[in-house]
Every structure is written in C-alpha cells, then in structure tokens.
Amino acid sequence: MSARTTALDAVVFGVDIQSGDVRGDAPSYALVVFDGESVERDVVTYRKLRRRIDDEAPTIVATDNMYELAEDKDALVRFLGSLPDETRLVQVTGDEQPEPLSRVASRHGVPYGKDPMQEAEAAARLAAANVGYEVSAFTDTTTVKVSRGRSTGSGGWSQDRYTRRIHGNVRTRAREVASALDDAGLDYEMDPTEKYGGFANAVFTVDAHPADIPVSRGRSGDTRVEIERERRDGIEFEPLAKRRDHVIVGMDPGTTTAVAVVSLDGQVHDVLSTRTADTAAVIEWIIERGRPVVVAADVEPMPETVEKVRRSFDAAPWIPTSDLPVDEKQHRTRETGYDNDHERDALAAALFAFDDHEDQFARIARKTPPHLDRGTVIERVLAGNGSVEAVVADIVEEDEEPAENEHEHDARELTAEEKRIRDLERQVERLQSHVDELQDTVSEKDDRISELESELSEARREERREARERRTVTRLERRNDALERDVTDREETIEALEGKLARLKELWKLDHSNFADVEEKKRGLVPVKPVDKFTRDAIDDAHDSYGLAPDDVVYLRDASGAGRSTAEKLVAHEPRVVLKEGGLSDVADEVLFEHEIPVGPAADVAMQEVDELAVAREDDVEAVIEDWEGRAEERKKDQKSEMVDRLISEHRADEAGSNAF
Predict the structure, then answer these.
(1) Tag placement on the chain: N or C end, fewer CB within 10 Å?
(2) Is there a contact between 416 and 304 (Cβ–Cβ < 8 Å)?
(3) Cβ(319)–Cβ(297) under 8 Å?
(4) How far is it, in rounded angstroms, from Cα 155 to Cα 169?
(5) Cα dist. 260→247, 274, 320 in Å?
(6) Are 202 and 176 in contact (CB under 8 A)?
(7) Strand pairing of 599-601 and 577-580?
(8) 644 by DSSP, 3-state: which?
C-alpha cells in the first residue's frame, strides 16, 4: 500500500487572491490549472474564474483560505451550491483551524513562494496529492422534483382536457425518472401529489450525489425537472485522504501535546501540536491518519500518556536507551517542517523509531509475498505473533478457508482462535479504559455546557428585551413621522381651502345681491359655473367641485358629442341658461328645448374666470335668454305648422284609400 494517493487523474484549479478583496468590487485571482503533468497559469477576474469553473468543471478547486472566494458563510454556501456537480472545493491548509500554507507545503515537499501565483500552484499540487479537506455545505441526499412546466390557465372550453393532459405528462415523466433511478440502482423515496388526470408533481428523495443521478434538470414541454441537494446545518470538512495505512507515531506529552505520524517508509504524513485536545481527541486524530504499529517517545521511561495511547492501539513501544539530546533531535528533523520544539520532539521520536526498525521493515518486505499487505505483516510481527514466515502462513491460511476441510480443526486453526480471543480481550480492556476516559470527559463537558446554556439563556433574554425596546422606539418614531407629515399635509390643504372659500364667498354674494356688503362695482354680475365637456362625468365633476343648483348659469366649454342621457342629466340640475362653445348634437338640443332650457353661444356673453368659476354681466345673460325665447317661439310655430301639414297629409291619404274601395 502507498502512504498516500499521490495524484488525481483529473484537473485541479489552484486559486489565490491576486489583488483586491472578495468583499470589494473587482478582485482578481491567480489561477493555476494542474492536471498532474502540465501547469497553466493565468490572472483572472472573479467573474472569469466562475465562468471557467462552470465551463471546464474541474475535479477540485483548491485554495488556502475558502473565504478568499466568498465574503461570509452565506456567500460560501451559495458558492458551493453553484459549483458543477462533479467539482469540489478543497481547503489545503486544514479544516476549521487551518495551518499556514508554507508549513503544509514544507511538510509534503511541495514548492512554495509568497507570490500569489506560487501559492496558487502550491495549493493545486497539494490537492492533487490528496492533501486538504473538502468543504461541504450539502449532504449526499438529493431532491429531484418533477412538476408542471406551464400553468393550467384560468379556464376555457377545453380547460379540463388541457389540465388532464398536463397532469398526465407529469405522471409519465415521473415514471421515467423512477425507471432511470431504478436502472442506476439508487435508493430513493417518491412522494407524488395526485391531481385530476395524473400528478401535479412528484418529489424523489435520492440517496446520491447529483453527479450520480442519471436525470438532468430543465424544462421540456409540459414538465419541469428541478434538482436540489439537501443543505447541512453548517459547513463541514471532510479529509481528502482517508488513510488507514500502517504508521509510526511519535508523541511529546505535556501542557502542549505534540504528535507526529510517519509512514513505514520514513515519510512524514502529518504533525499536530495542541494545548486544548485531550487524550481522546488525540487518539481520534491519529485514527484519521493511520493504524499505528509503533508508538514512540523521546524520553526514557515512556510517559504515562504515551503509554495510554500505545495501549489503545495495541502497538509496539519504542523509547531510547536514554533521553534524546536536543542536538541529535535537531539534526534528525532538519529536513522536515515543524513550528515548535514540541513538534520537533514528536517528529524526532517517530523518526528515530523508524531508524531502529528500518532494517527489520526491509527484511519483512523482502519476505512478504506481493499480494499481501506489508503493513499487516509488520504489525503482527511487532506484536509478537511469530516470525515473518509464520505470520505470512497465518494470513494465507485465513484467506484460503478450504471448503473440503470445514469439518476438521487442526492445531493451527486452534492457535488462530486462541490468538483471536487474546486480541479481543486486549481490545475489551483497551476500550473499557477508553470508555472511562470518555465518560469523565463527557461529564466535564456536560457541566460546561450547562454553564454556557445558562449564560446563553441570559444573553438571549437581554437581547430580546433590547430588541423589543428598539422595535418600540422605531415604531413610535415612524408613527411620529407619519403624524408630522399628516399635519403638514392638512395645514397645506386648509390653507388652499381657505383661499378657495374666500373666492366662493365673493361669488356667492354676487348671486345674492340683497346683501348689503356686496360691493357696488360688483352688482350687475352673475356667477357662471363652467363644465369642461358635455359628458356625464364632466357634469358630475363640476357638481362635486362647486355644486350645480337650480337657476345657475352653466358654461359648456365643449358642447359637442352629448347624447340624450347626458342632456337629461344636465336638465335635472334645472339651469337658468346654458352657454356653449361649439355645436350641440341634435338629440341634446331637442332635449334642452323640450325642457325649455335656454341655450346660447358663449361668445355673446363677456365672461371673466375666477379659479374654477367665472362671472358674467347680468345684461348679457338676459340678452341671451331673450334671444333664445324669440327663437324658441319661432321654433314652436314651425313645429305646429309641420304638425298641421302632417295631419292634413294623413287625412287625405285616408280618404284616397276609402274611395279606392
């Protein structure tokens, strides 16, 4: 087994901020495209970077800081959701607590420089070597929704048939999706919404990544297919390299605990130094990086914490004959990267342990058949399970399991069972010890959680109180502003109405000349009430504005186009006289004449307009009325003459008909 997957058969984009900031208007990025052999370098804008990701769909977009691509958590979730289905975002410097890129690059032998293009290339090469953590905001559960591609409409002669056809097509498409998922061997649950003629929609919950689902999103005819991944509660990090290689672990316990993981070939995998992690967390960190066959310390005797970790893995111990001198530790770790003396000591312990076992590992490798795992053989030999030959024979026998000898139990099979019992007893002891430690840790954390929950509850109460106060103040301020605006509007309206009222009073006094306070020069004038058009709406508007009362003088600015109903509406107000601009229709003229409403041209009356109203001389109005009365008298005579002629004609026609018989 190799210590690490060294390269990916895929394209990796390494990205680092070149200038600007993602929170600004125009950030630019150093982009390195690495396929394992060739390297392409470019400087691109954020928009061009997104376009290249969408067009080329790289396997990995690698960066040393994920927040160089998104300004906050919400933007990061949107960025992850917009990536192509086959593309992953990888932070090569770690998970929630990333390390400096320089340290990670040095640890894995990747060239590094402070120039953004060099950092982008280092990120690409590290991700290609399976170094880093995948940043994920979504689970591997995907929702596929089949629904209507168009509205069923608001009704019509063929509404039922049209709706039935759409629902039938949705059901057909849902069955096609179900068949495709079945053919792909994917687990899913289907939740259809049945409607008239078929399905209104069908929701499939599929236990798979969108890239593994043989259905594409889009709209086709009457149906639409939408694909969405299920959102996690937060951002999660998943290591790219899920190694279970056999490794050597060096530890330096204390206030700051340091751990180093080295492969059986002497290559440094990872280094950790922490002041907060307990033994359980350290063990979990080691488990994620391999299966220890040797646990080493740089002092003699082995510290209790290191011994506890060694027992939890049932690994072989290694300690020096005397405490390792500082100069020897510095010399042995000179070609590796570390941040502090604790990491140096842990690395030195692991590397000196490898040096002591290097020849033994080489002999075991030479005697191990190619089809067997060298690490498994080394683990069993170091555990005292016999020579290399015996261990290889045991492994081969365990793998063969001959059918013809199922009923026989030879001595070697019994020995394997006894060894299995022994291993299980050790494992039980180790797990019990680990459980005790975890229970103590859980108890401490429960107490801390209770304290934090109390503090959080109090903080939330205080925050809710302040929020209520802020909402009350904001609401009152808005109400006050609204009232102030209302007062201003009312004052302006009152001022305008007062001016209008003063003018109306003057006009009203003109119409009631018996009042002593009417000025002498204004006597002999009469108010005129204009109507913009001879329509029902214009008559209503004039009446609403200043009132049309009996014996008013009405002025039609445009008398054309009125019908019978409009003329009758004006007659209902019983005007004294109608002054008009333009010609009346025959129908309107007939109605006004029948009701003896005088009509005359406005040009015969000298008028002076005051706001919406007007005034005219009484003499001019009387002259128009007298003129109309004269014309009306002639019109009545003409009508009587026409009526007599018509009666004579009808009588003669009746006599002619009688003589004919």
Answers:
(1) C
(2) no
(3) yes
(4) 19
(5) 10, 12, 17
(6) no
(7) parallel
(8) helix
Which tokens go with 568? 């009758």
Give per-residue burial for 363-385: e unless 16+ CB within 10 Å, then b.
Answer: ebeeebeeeeebbbbbbbbbbeb
DSSP code per residue over 480-492: HHHHHHHHHHHHH
Q: Cα–Cα distance between 577 and 601 in angstroms, integer?
A: 10
Closest CA to 166 of 150, 177, 182: 150
Per-position DSSP letters for 612-638, written without gaps between them:
TEEEEEHHHHHHHHHHHHHHHHHHHHH
Spell out, as residue ranges, where the chain has pLDDT lower than 50.
1-8, 401-414, 513-521
Is the pTM higher than 0.70? The answer reads: no
* Tokens 């067997």 -> residue: 372
Report how far apart, in Å, the C-alpha atoms of 212 and of each of 138, 444, 640 are: 15, 44, 100
CA distance 368 to 362: 10
- Interior CA angle at 505 toward 499 and 508, to 5°? 145
Distance between CA atoms of 571 and 34, rounded to whole angstroms? Answer: 92
> Is the separation of the CB atoms in 144 and 226 below 8 Å?
yes
Can you give the C-alpha Rg of the chain in angstroms? 49
Tell me, what's the pLDDT at 19?
87
**What's the length of the chain?**
661
- Where helices occur in 274-410 by DSSP H, the ranges are 279-287, 304-313, 326-332, 341-367, 374-382, 388-400
CB distance 354 to 248 below 8 Å: yes
Contact in structure between 89 and 80 (CB atoms under 8 Å): yes
CA-closest candidate to residue 507, choices 495, 519, 492, 496: 519
Residue range 596-620, pLDDT digits in tens: 899 999 888 988 876 677 888 888 8
Whole-angstrom Cα distance, residue 313 to residue 282? 12
DSSP 580-606: ESSPPPHHHHHHHHHTT--EEEGGGS-
| Strand blocks (E) in 81-209 | 88-91, 133-148, 188-195, 198-207
